[in-house]
Task: inverse folding
């Protein structure tokens, strides 16, 4: 808002008065400062725009940021910590993973199947209550896991430790995390130009 917004509201006889002009110049300066402060404060109510409140929330939540963390990473850690107070399920873990701003992450759950050892320790009644889908086939794993798949990232993403810390705060301790990375196979390399190949990191290749 500028001084002309105020002056235009006055009678036209006063609009050319230099005293009125100077007076509303000073008033507009003060009002603009107030508007700027309000705009800044509005941003402090949202995780992805807060600046002033970042160290405040970190202190309240007892978060110690690493010296290498960017402002966005610190915001993500605060949002993840905030969400961790909710009931833990796959939707919550996905929401926490979405707070991480270095790429898209897809969260899935692989259940634990019953093995021969499990069956040997069951009574007949317990075995009768089991569903066929609970039994492991030849390729099924014996342990449950929460799978973290990086959708649009090649190789090990940067700042992976921030994501691990965020997830460890909400994932049950008895369920391991399985991180699934994507690498460049030979078929992808064959379709690259020399310039595109020169821009790739060695860690992006599968070997």
Result:
């Amino acid at each position: 808002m500028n001084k002309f917004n105020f002056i235009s509201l006055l009678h036209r006889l006063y609009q050319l008065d230099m005293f009125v002009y100077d007076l509303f110049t000073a008033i507009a300066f003060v009002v603009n400062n107030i508007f700027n402060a309000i705009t800044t404060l509005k941003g402090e109510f949202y995780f992805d725009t807060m600046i002033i409140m970042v160290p405040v929330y970190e202190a309240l939540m007892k978060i110690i940021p690493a010296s290498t963390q960017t402002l966005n990473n610190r915001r993500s850690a605060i949002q993840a910590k905030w969400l961790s107070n909710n009931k833990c399920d796959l939707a919550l873990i996905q929401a926490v993973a979405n707070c991480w701003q270095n790429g898209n992450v897809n969260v899935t759950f692989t259940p634990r199947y019953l093995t021969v050892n499990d069956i040997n320790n069951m009574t007949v009644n317990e075995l009768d209550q089991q569903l066929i889908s609970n039994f492991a086939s030849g390729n099924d794993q014996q342990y449950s896991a929460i799978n973290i798949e990086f959708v649009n990232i090649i190789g090990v993403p940067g700042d992976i430790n921030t994501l691990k810390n965020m997830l460890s705060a909400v994932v049950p301790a008895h369920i391991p995390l399985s991180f699934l990375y994507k690498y460049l196979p030979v078929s992808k390399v064959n379709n690259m130009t020399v310039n595109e190949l020169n821009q790739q990191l060695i860690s992006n290749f599968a070997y």
